[in-house]
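Morning F.,

Quick status update on the modeling queue. The single chain you submitted on Monday has been processed. Sequence for confirmation:
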Amino acid sequence: MCIIKNGCKFGCKIYNVINIKRKINIELEKRKKDGILIDENVPIFFRVTYNSNRINLFSGFRIDRKDWNENKSLVKNGKTNPNGLTAEEINTNLSNLINDIQTFFIKCQVENNIPDKLELKEYFTQCKDRGNKKKKQLFQQKKYQKNLSLKYMIILQIILGK
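Structure tokens below.
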């Protein structure tokens, strides 16, 4: 944690603003089964380090190890996970979650508050749940539209007598 003093040469007030140094990495879990590293359907998580704290946050996504770019910490282009999500969808969601974590730390800096692990976990869970609700709403909307178009087709066939 650093304290930054903001002010100018004309005698403006100087305010103390904290700067929370942090590092956010995206990694695959390195769990072993029978002494062998698991390679299929591996959880993707964020490792956040700040103020001598380290916390692992599960992203909610999984991918096969062979489809993961270790250098870029992203899913390789053109790949899908076992749940059918594309690389673009997963990478976009991971990027959005990183932005949410950064936003959390910026808010804490403005409030001169160093968050504890529980605060970060709760905020991250809210952000993750918000994303899941949007996905569910889109899925339900597409399903509704598909059902509606099927109903119109059936009605049209009845009217036309086919």
